[in-house]
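Review box. Two proteins, two foldings.
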Amino acid sequence: MTGNHKDTSITRRRALVVSGGTVAAGGLAVAGFQSAFADVTDTSTDADATASASSTSSECMTLMSSVTEGPYYLDGALVRKDITEGKAGVPLTLRLTVVDATDGCTPVKGAAVEIWHCDAWGYYSGYTTANPGGSAPAESEEGDSADDNTYLRGYQVANANGVVKFETIFPGWYTPRTCHIHVKVHTGGEKEDGTYEGGKVNYTGQLFFDDTVAEEIFTLDPYSKHTGSYTVLADDMVYDGGGASSGLLTLKAVHKKDPSKGYKGSLTLGIDPDAENTGAGSGGGGTPPSGAPTGAPPSDSASPSASASS
C-alpha cells in the first residue's frame, strides 16, 4: 500500500494541489513546542505562553473553513481526555486551541471540542460493519476491549486559555478518503450525564495529516493489515490545500527515529462564537464502497470501558 499508487477507478469530487503550507514531518518546527504540550492548566505561566503564541501566529487570525461532518457522526460522545478504549495504534496526543477569530484571537473559554475518527483499519465506532475499502480484517478480529459504539469519540471543554487535549491513536484510512479526524466546536451548552448537552455548533471541520507521516505510519502494525489504495492530500475530496486554516495539523514525532512511539499534533481553531454551523459544509465526506454506513447509535448507558473521564 502506498500513496503513490492511487486507484483511478474511484471518482473524486475534486482533486486539488496541496499548497506550499504542507511540509514534511522532519521539517516541522514550532517555537516553544515543549511548553505548548505541557499539561493543560490555568496557571499564569500557561496563560502568558498562550497569549504570546496567539499574538505572533497569523494562523489564529484566519477563520477556519467549515466542511462536512461526514457519514459517521453520532450524538452522545463522552466528555473525556483519553478516547482510545484500548484500540491499538500509534499514540497521538492532540492539542487544540480555540480562539475567536473575529475578536483578536481571544481564547474561547468553555468551548466544547468534539472529535471522532476511525481506528487503525478504517472502522468507526457505531458503524463497524461498514467496509473501509481495500483489504482489511473484520473489525471484530482486533480483539480489544473497546465499546463498538463509543471508541475514538469524545469531548473536552476548553480551559481559560481555550486549550483542550486528547489522547488517542493515529487514525487509519478508508476509501476514498485521506487520513483525517473530524472535529466540532460547540458553545453555550454544558456537561450532563457524562456528555455535553445543549448550546450550538459553531464550527464543523476535519483535521489532516502530512502524507509523509501518514504513509510511514501505515507501514506499521496494525495499520499494515489494511492494504489498498490510500488517498493522498492532493486527491482528497475534502481537504482544499489551505494548510492550517483548512485543518492541517502541525506534527512532531515523540522519537524521531521510531515513529511507533507516537506523535504530538497541534492546531489553533479560529472560530466565530456567534455563528452556527449545520455540519453540511463542503466536500462529500466519502462513504465506503459498500454504500451507506450501517450500525446502531450508542446506547444510553456506556460500558465500563467507555466511562467518562477528564
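Next protein.
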Amino acid sequence: MRKSHPIRRFVLAGAATVSGIVLLLSLKPATDPASAQAAGGAAPPVAASPQGGAQAAGSGTVTGDAARTQYGAVQVRLTVAGGKITKAEAVQAPKGGQSDQVTANAVPKLNQAAVAAQSADIDAVSGATYTSAGYKQSLQSAIDKANAAAGAGQGSSSQGSGEQGSGSGAAQARTVTGAVAQTQYGPVQVRVTVSGGKITKAEAVKAPSGGQSTTVTANAVPKLNQAAVAAGSADIDAVSGATYTSAGYKESLQSALDQAGG
C-alpha cells in the first residue's frame, strides 16, 4: 500500500510543473522592465518640451547675444509688448557646482529688475557679480535688437507723413556711439540716446572686464550712466575706486555727444 504507482507519481509531477509555469506567466507583466520603462521613461522628455514650444516667431521676443563670464555664458531673452519689457528670462546661465545655487538665487532677481527698470541699468545681485555683469551685457544686447526692430518699423510707417516735426518724441530720438577710449585696464565705449536735445539714456557698450575689473565695472558703470543722464553732458564726477574707467567713460561720452551735437 505504501508503494505509489509510477504513473500516479508522473501525473502529480506534471501537474506541479504546469502550475508553476502558469504562475510565472501571470507574474511577468508586473516585473517586465520594458513595460515599466514604457510607462514612466517617456515622461521627462515630454515635460521638458514646453520650454521651447512657448516661444513663437514674431511674438515680440528677442534674444540678446551670449555674454561670456568667468563662470560660464549668460544669455537673456526679452518679451516686449507696446514698447515695454513684459518678461525677461535667462536662457543661459552659469551652472555646475556652486554656480547652480548662485544662478538660482540671482537670475530671478535680475529678471524682475529688468522688467521694473525697463533697461539694462539694474543693480548687480550680491554674491553674483560676474553673473550680474553678463546678464546686463546680454540684456542690453536684447534691448538694442528690440529697438532696432522698432526703429525699422517706425521708419517704414512714417514715410507717408510729410510733417516730421509732428511725430512723437520717440521717433525723433537718436542713438549715437562714442569713440573707444583706451584705459590702463581696457577700452571704454559709451552709447547715448538723445531726444529733444537731452540725454535720455547712457550705456557702456565696452568696459574693462576680467578679474577685479569686472567688479569695478559692475559698480561704476551704472553710476556713470545715471550721472550722464542727470548732467546732460560729460561733466560728471568720477566714481570712487574707478578712476581710469570713469576717465575713459567721460572721454567716450563726450565723443558721442559731439556726434549728436547737431
